[in-house]
Amino acid sequence: MEQRVVRAAIINVTGYVGAELARLLAQHPAVEIACVTGRSEVGKRLPEVFPHLWSVDLPIVADVDQGVDVIFSALPHAAAAERLAPYVEQGMPVIDASADFRLYDEETYERWYGEHPTPELLAASVYGLPELHRDAITESRLVGVPGCYPTSAILALAPLAAQGWLDGRTVVDAKSGVSGAGRALKLTSHFSEVDSNFSAYGLSGHRHHPEMVQELSALQHASDGDAQLGVTFVPHLVPMTRGILATCYPSLRDGALSGSAEERIEALRELYRSWYADAPFVHVSDSPPSTKQTLGANTCIVYPTVDPLSGEVTVISAIDNLVKGAAGGAVQCFNLMFGIPEEVGLSKIGVYP
Amino acid sequence: MEQRVVRAAIINVTGYVGAELARLLAQHPAVEIACVTGRSEVGKRLPEVFPHLWSVDLPIVADVDQGVDVIFSALPHAAAAERLAPYVEQGMPVIDASADFRLYDEETYERWYGEHPTPELLAASVYGLPELHRDAITESRLVGVPGCYPTSAILALAPLAAQGWLDGRTVVDAKSGVSGAGRALKLTSHFSEVDSNFSAYGLSGHRHHPEMVQELSALQHASDGDAQLGVTFVPHLVPMTRGILATCYPSLRDGALSGSAEERIEALRELYRSWYADAPFVHVSDSPPSTKQTLGANTCIVYPTVDPLSGEVTVISAIDNLVKGAAGGAVQCFNLMFGIPEEVGLSKIGVYP
Amino acid sequence: MEQRVVRAAIINVTGYVGAELARLLAQHPAVEIACVTGRSEVGKRLPEVFPHLWSVDLPIVADVDQGVDVIFSALPHAAAAERLAPYVEQGMPVIDASADFRLYDEETYERWYGEHPTPELLAASVYGLPELHRDAITESRLVGVPGCYPTSAILALAPLAAQGWLDGRTVVDAKSGVSGAGRALKLTSHFSEVDSNFSAYGLSGHRHHPEMVQELSALQHASDGDAQLGVTFVPHLVPMTRGILATCYPSLRDGALSGSAEERIEALRELYRSWYADAPFVHVSDSPPSTKQTLGANTCIVYPTVDPLSGEVTVISAIDNLVKGAAGGAVQCFNLMFGIPEEVGLSKIGVYP
Amino acid sequence: MEQRVVRAAIINVTGYVGAELARLLAQHPAVEIACVTGRSEVGKRLPEVFPHLWSVDLPIVADVDQGVDVIFSALPHAAAAERLAPYVEQGMPVIDASADFRLYDEETYERWYGEHPTPELLAASVYGLPELHRDAITESRLVGVPGCYPTSAILALAPLAAQGWLDGRTVVDAKSGVSGAGRALKLTSHFSEVDSNFSAYGLSGHRHHPEMVQELSALQHASDGDAQLGVTFVPHLVPMTRGILATCYPSLRDGALSGSAEERIEALRELYRSWYADAPFVHVSDSPPSTKQTLGANTCIVYPTVDPLSGEVTVISAIDNLVKGAAGGAVQCFNLMFGIPEEVGLSKIGVYP
Questions:
Q1: Is D298 on the interface with A (CB under 8 A)?
Q2: Cβ C185–A183 below 8 Å, yes or no?
Q3: Are the C-beta atoms of residues C276 and C302 closer than 8 Å to each other?
Q4: Interface residue B241 vs chain D (CB under 8 A)
Q5: Can you spell out the DSSP letters for C6-61?
Q6: Which among C350, D91, D120, D233 could disulfide-bond with B52, CB atoms 3.0 to 4.6 Å apart, if both were Cys?
Q7: Where does A200-322 have alpha helices with state H?
Q8: Are D35 and D63 in a shared domain?
Q9: How many CB atoms are closer than 10 A to CB B221?
Q10: How many contacts (CB atoms, under 8 Å) link C and D?
Q11: How confident is the model at residue A150 (pLDDT cuts 50, 70, 90)?
């Protein structure tokens, strides 16, 4: 039980995922933040950039120090793979929050993100969703932390896919707080444009689509090789900073559930409870969740139900996009990789109200 | 062009729809607000209850004065029909914002709202959506103003239904500002519960469902008697005061649209533009709308598109729930009923940002 | 009463003040928007930049057309004076929303804004606050529309200054919605930074300070040549888009008010009501105002009171910073300059809730 | 270092302070929540009332169990004293978040809150602000946790008062998130009324005024027996859930600070840094704080400065009203009372953005 302190580096601490990693790791009992990098702010102290980190008084440096035990990267895609490749090759444990190590198929990556800088590393990486890949993550030295939307959608639909029940069109109508768009300045994150406003975006295709298809298809095909899986994914922007709610409308195979509406609801919840029995951060709820119930916490609340009018299944999930959907998911993987109990350093209780 | 001033009464001015009627009618060049009623606040002046109406300094009274020319009611359902019946029987023009005169079928009403106080009046009422029933409203003396969600969903889907194209399950994933829940105090409208929070509700069925089915089925069946129409409607609560965005995922009949994705998008927009050519407040947009673009205005922005990945149609609509979705829709009907140009007293320009 | 239509140009329509001018002028019964300019967006249609203006389908051009009757400018300071000088010299009526024609004293301007491009025009301009300078505005051809904060603070304190009652330090603790910072991208207007957050800024001095001092001193000195006037002005950023609330803590000359607290409150309100008797957009209220009561309207609500514990006077005022604090104030001046009744084209009723 | 687990009871867990105590204590390494009470919800599980506490699955009971080591009370005033008196008399450590044990003077209490149920206990209580009363709290068995506004104002002004520098009128212009008004339903906490809105309230006197005067006077008089202290306190409601920012405008005794503006700023900050050198949760900042920097954390950020125009001192402080201003302050006192290091179980890092 005696845990030596792990020395962690955070690359590109100056965005929201980087700052959230700093918040979580600074309070993690088994971690010491050894260094933080961030090109544009080199020379400043971390609290000058992020005053809420006033008690984490580290200099922002250009390069990762010698002697760190693990690297967390919050670089954008492409830049991440390029910067991380040497560490991966040295065998350093690397946890990357970009898209570079999420997609196993190079062509799919290329279609959405352009050429991959280090395609040879794809085979070595694990999709960092512990609820699906706990063992592989535990064994891995390179983890690609899932996107925020895929985290919410996959956790909502995985138990159905694992039964081989998905068939036909699944609609994922997802709603995200604005921090998902990052700290870079753009008109669509400008306060006056977003405040008291609600809109859809990404209607010509969103980069998080292939992740959902990759993971759900893998589950589905393991169970039912012939099943078709179509995902219509429409993201929306909510006038709030944190949180994702995904409302998922799957089409289920005939006969997937039977009985009265009540019986089918109960069977559905039982399936979910059982599927997530060993997942400490997934809470299968009997009432519809709200995003703020997860604020600042690594929780995913999942609510599967049946529409009594149409008899169709609807599944809703809620997460904090910066925690379970990014930095918290990363820390959860880190715990597994380092033999630390999965829940250490992560809260299950949202800052509510 | 000489328009005599119409003397209007507002019954139950003390809720948000009542207050919004007061805002609009006070600025309507052809209207004089003759009296406002509101049981709980009788004896006060209107600005004591609603300080933003400081320039509309009327007493709140218990009963409608003699000598009014039209009655706008913002009473809740059941109370509305009961209070309005005598006026309807006298032939007084009545515009009712409750659910009492929206559903033509008494049994459907009863299933969702309980016994109807005056079922004999249902046959005389018109569903107050001018874009579908302009002529009938013009001739009518009793109008049931549509619910806010149905306004957004029906305007998003009507052109498809009118083609007989809807087939199978249509998902209406709708998101509303909190004012849709009214001014009555409840935990789900309490600031600290709703702020920075997003959730779904009404998952066991919402009262606005039958309106959508009634109106879309009527359009659909006029074109295609055999078509099936299933609507899964899930409302959500957005941390903002006003606005509804409805993201609609219709299933279309095979062969409804053909050609490349671009051709199908263009055909779809052309269908919508043509269907709404005479609707002054419906704007068919080439880019996804946001709710704040309609704030305070009677506009409905509709955006039909095709998902390039799945080839499926998605239609998004945006309104201000208190204007086009309630008080503004009522004033639009009033204009038609009184031979006033449809656009008078209503803005098309949202208060943005 | 027959009013010919005035052809108006809006220079730099692409910021929030420009867009708000477009909203107001498009609905002004005596105005036709003849042209709108905006360097960075030339060639686009106005609704491409501002979809809420979908019904104002004008091209954005580089230069003001021939044949306009009045120019509204929403350029930033310095750029405004430079661009407007030729029009002013031609005798064209010009209404400028920048700081260039607000300060009568060239040196004061220089201290806060740098060199003035056209100091020779300062003598010809009028400070565009009709409540203080109605006659001068009516006669003027060049109006400098007040800043948003000064509008709120001056209207809160003018009746006291006009009595010669201000003496010693007056604290103006003002709170503004984020739209006051404009449409330009900056971290301090980034949604995730501002949302659910509250902060002070400008603590080393804010450019709106000298306007307050100029106008209040002029009033004060007309009444009491010897009085001292010190203003501590601290602006704050509120997580909302529109609205300013100024809480003013004046120090009053000994003997300024006498009697019991109730008597002093009543005397104070009577003073304010009488001072603003002819101001159609200033409402002296008996209860503390809130900003949303003025949303989208040209109203200023003023609430003077006496703290029963300390006996000190506090005055609170509320406006919509983009309307009464910018574009609406500009239109009000325009009406006066063109002999149009002061209230035309402007609402007194906020879009509430 | 071996710490036995302290068994804590939370009385009236069903309000926001109670829920926040549950959040903090559930994650406190030295505490076990032994029981939670809440009259109106007896029989439910805690997560049924507060779904964010899904991992704290306790029954809500009517009465405190035997065998608890400490009582935290989140009852309202009067009810608190009545319910807590027997425990106090038994010598049980009690930490009360109501106003009942904050004011040492019975008459002052009576003027603001009505008759005190147990005036005999006032002498035994300590004002629970560790930054002022660390030793007394450590020795105490009855602590009255300060109000949220007083926490922010006193921490902003204490170093000045302790120098005997306050003289004349001090303005405390404070702005609070809506959660400060609690979970009880009222129109002034109704989402649509508060959202995108800003207002002042409590202009006829606010109950938190006497606390500020009590504590600042005590500091001031210890240093300068003759000094006058007048506080004008105006609270405001910010459209956000958590956070207080207090902007304080003290009048300082002549000669309190000297030198250039820069020198005076530096002297001021040095005074503050030195005064708070041993306070782990008070951060004296060189830049103006914002409330969200403290979200969910027990931090108070204090920013003292000098207005370069007027030469006057302004001090700004920021806290999370539910943490440092209520439940976190309570836990900090608890740590002191039980010999636990002051920082245990409390975060210094806000959940930002």
A1: no
A2: no
A3: yes
A4: yes
A5: EEEEEESTTSHHHHHHHHHHHT-TTEEEEEEE-GGGTTSBHHHH-GGGTT---BEE
A6: C350
A7: 209-223, 261-275
A8: yes
A9: 14
A10: 147
A11: very high
What pLDDT, on a 0 to 100 scale, did the predictor assign at position B3? 61
pLDDT at D1: 43
Give me the amino acid identity at A334.
Answer: F
Report the Cα C180 to chain-centroid distance in Å.
Answer: 11
Are B178 and B133 contained in the same domain?
no
Average pLDDT, chain B: 96
N-to-C CA span, chain D: 35
The answer to the question of residue B342 being in a domain is no
Q: Are residues D45 and D112 in the same domain?
A: yes
Q: Is C194 on the interface with A (CB under 8 A)?
A: yes
Q: CA of D322: which chain A residue's CA is closest? A: A353
Band (A2; pLDDT cuts 50, 70, 90): low
Note whether B195 contacts D16, CB cutoff 8 Å. Answer: no
* Residue A120 shares a structural domain with residue A264: no
Looking at the fold, whether A126 and A35 belong to one and the same domain comes out as yes
Distance from CA of C53 to the nearest CA of B (A): 6
The whole model's pTM is what?
A: 0.98
- D241 and B191 within 8 Å at the Cβ level: the answer is yes
- For residues A250-258, give the mean pLDDT: 93
CB burial of C152-186 (b: ≥16 within 10 Å; e: otherwise) equals bbbbbbbbbbbbbbbbebbbbbbbbbbbbbbbeee
Tens digit of pLDDT for each residue in D72-82? 999 999 999 99
- Which residue, B228, C310, A341, C290, is CA-closest to D194? C290
- CB contacts of D193 in chain C (<8 Å) are 353
Residues in CB range of A47: below 8 A, 6 or more apart = A53, A54, A55, A56, A57
Instruction: Identify whether B350 is part of a domain.
Output: no
What integer pLDDT is reported at residue B224 of this predicted model? 73
The CA radius of gyration of chain D, in Å to the nearest whole number, is: 20
Q: Enter the tokens of residue B52.
A: 């933003």
Write the CA distances from B151 to B25, B98, B154, C29, integer angstroms. Answer: 21, 13, 5, 30
Domain-located, residue C279: yes
| pLDDT score at D39 | 87
Q: What is the CATH number of the domain that holds C47?
A: 3.40.50.720
CATH number at residue C231: 3.30.360.10
What are the tokens at D149? 């506004």
Q: Report phi then psi at C308, rounded to 5.
A: -65, -20
- ipTM score assigned to the predicted complex: 0.97
| Angle (deg, nearest 10), helices D328-337 and D16-26 | 50
The predicted-structure confidence for B19-34, as pLDDT tens digits, reads as follows 999 999 999 999 999 9
Q: Is residue B61 part of a domain?
A: yes
Give the pLDDT confidence of A93-103 residue by residue, as tens digits.
Answer: 999 999 999 99
Q: What's the total number of domains in chain B?
A: 2
Residue C87 — very low, low, confident or very high, per pLDDT cuts 50/70/90?
very high
Smallest Cβ–Cβ distance between D23 and the set A52, A179, A349 belongs to: A349
A44 CB within 8 Å of a chain D CB: no
Instruction: Write out pLDDT tens, residues A282-309.
Output: 999 999 999 999 999 999 999 999 998 8
Task: Find the helix packing angle between A148-162 and A261-275, rounded to 10°.
Answer: 110
Same domain, A123 and A176: no
Do residue D201 and residue D266 come from a single domain? yes
Q: B348 — contact with chain A (CB < 8 Å)?
A: no
What does the alpha-carbon distance between residue C191 and residue C199 come to, in Å, rounded to a whole number? 14
- The domain in which residue C175 lies consists of 149-320
Residue C224 has pLDDT above 80, yes or no: no
Q: Which residue of C has its CA nearest to D168?
A: C310
CB A231 within 8 A of CB A198: no
Whether A201 and A277 map to the same domain: the answer is yes
Q: What's the average model confidence in pLDDT over B40-52?
A: 97
* Mean pLDDT along residues B212-231: 87
Closest CA in chain C for residue A190: C190
Instruction: Just list the catalytic residues of C.
Output: 148
Quote the pLDDT of residue B1: 43
